[in-house]
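User: Please write out a complete single-protein record containing the residue sequence and its fold in token form, without commentary.

AI:
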Amino acid sequence: MMEHFFYGLTQVFEWQNLLYMLLGVIAGIVVGGLPGLSVTIALALMLPFTFGMPASTAMLLMLGVYCAGTYGGSIGAILLKTPGTPASAATAADGFALSQQGKAGRALNISLYASVIGGLVSGLVLLFVSPQIASFALKFGPPEYFMLALFGLTIVAGVSGQSLIKGLITACFGMLIATIGLDPMTGSPRFTFEQTFLQSGIPLIPALIGLFAISEIMNQSAKRREKISTAVNFQHERFGWKHMFPFRKTIIKSSFIGVIIGAIPGTGGSIASFLSVNEAQRVSKKPKEFGNGSEESVAAAEAGNNGTTGATLIPMMTLGVPGDVITAVLLSALLIQGLQPGPQLFQSHGDLVYTVMVGFIVVNIIMFIVGKLAIRWFAKVTILPSSVLFPVVLMFCLIGSYAYNYSFHSVWIAIVFGLIGYMLPKFGFPVIPILIGMILGPMAERSLRQALVLSEGSLFIFIERPLALTFLILIILSIFLPMLRKAYDQKHQEVITGTKTEKM
């Protein structure tokens, strides 16, 4: 093991590999920050360039794009309320609120530091405990996936604003949208209205662009704001590791949430980031700030989604099972090099495996350096005149929607969801639960139906299996603990008020 580790260390620090990692990081940040151009698209575009490269160089280039693209999605989320990737959707509300308060530079720094810490934690776990986590992930079956999705839906309570009922309504609306397409069990079309483009379902990225980006352009245009943010002095704002100290517990916890979620095939950064924000709000001393410009929320979301990056490589490398679309592309890069991921990869090509693992950590360090140097330039986007900024952002939104599957249908879907995202908040309905429903709905439906087939219709399967029962307990706790805490706080406040009245 140590021999492979030191060999990987020497490979990573060869100047050619360092250069390709740097290029990958720059490309990932740029593509990840543009609306609609997801990490998957960036990796797919880079894949042809790996032909003829040594296997280690090709994988290090792809890792640079992957890690930086995941972080880059937060840039648009914070500055323009336009998440560059679905994993950054949880960052949009609080990040953009901070930007409007003149704290764009601070929000970008928090995002960068939290992303790097999440990535480093994920990388260390990948390096030292990947086989153990992979074996744990193998224990997940349909009942566990369903309970995990149900646990994820408890997030709705934390993002529903003043009305939980309205949040649940919009979450159900998102889950209803997720049923459009082909039935996952029978393959028959449903709710497609004889439109062939709907058979593949409502694509997430155009819907995401519409809900957050196009709707925000409509809002800002209606307010006739001259600039997105004012009174921000980026040149004199200093930000270092000491400023992250208040968020240390949140970031570490969120990073490990990301690691656990990322190691489970079929989940991903979106679920991890929302779960991380929900957990951070649950234990926060300032829960009312969440959704209105909470720095802790930004730190939790970015640590959570970047915590998945290394963990998603665990099932891919140890089992040959891609955890999501992104790792499927990375798996393709390995196959192109004539390598077969799986248990034999560690025995036959241990030097390459450890080069990838060590390179993952170095990529995050390079990402920090590049991001730190570029933050002041990112932040200047907020002081551009809206007459210039909004048309450019709208153009990227529409291009990104079209580039998702090279269809104008995706453009119309983005516009429709833009109108939905613009109108619903005017009647007090939050839009984030729609996205949560669309993300978790397919997993919940598929897993529930598969579990009931396995149990021949018996619901006891969800309490007979230890992992499923654990998630059920977590669901109950996540629902009732905040209620008990709120009741306790109210009672405590009444006691304090009564004591003050007696003294008077």
Remarks:
- The two ends are 72 Å apart (CA to CA).
- The longest strand covers residues 181-182.
- Residues 466-503 form the longest helix (38 residues).
- Residues 2-455 form one domain.
